[in-house]
Design brief:
The structure is a single chain. The chain is mainly alpha-helical and about 90 residues long. It has one domain (about 5-40, about 65-94). Helix content is about 60%, strand content about 0%. It contains 3 helices and no strands. InterPro entries: Rer1.
Length: about 90
């Protein structure tokens, strides 16, 4: 599967002019995942900072930005949920 399933889902909503609730649910789920993708795994504001945030000595530890949800997992979940949305939209049409 690839992004064509997402395109088909949006075209289905556009041409049928319905299923907005199902699409809204998928959209809010994707936005929640996007927040997880853009947010760090560890919140830097909760850590106590004494002075500079970058390591200044060899003994200081450098913490790179680590995502809460990895990019591959984000794309995999978004692509996997699109056929479910299409199935829900089909059964609501009956």
């Amino acid at each position: 599967m690839n992004y064509s399933t997402i395109r088909i889902a949006f075209l289905h909503v556009y041409y049928v002019q319905g299923f907005y609730v199902v699409s809204y649910g998928l959209g809010t789920y994707v936005l929640n995942l996007l927040i997880g993708l853009l947010s760090p795994k560890e919140d830097p504001e909760l850590e106590v900072l004494d002075g500079a945030s970058l390591p200044m000595k060899g003994s200081d530890e450098f913490k790179p930005f680590i995502r809460h949800i990895p990019e591959f997992r984000f794309c995999n979940i978004v692509i996997a949920k699109s056929p479910f949305r299409m199935c829900f939209a089909y059964f609501l049409n009956l």
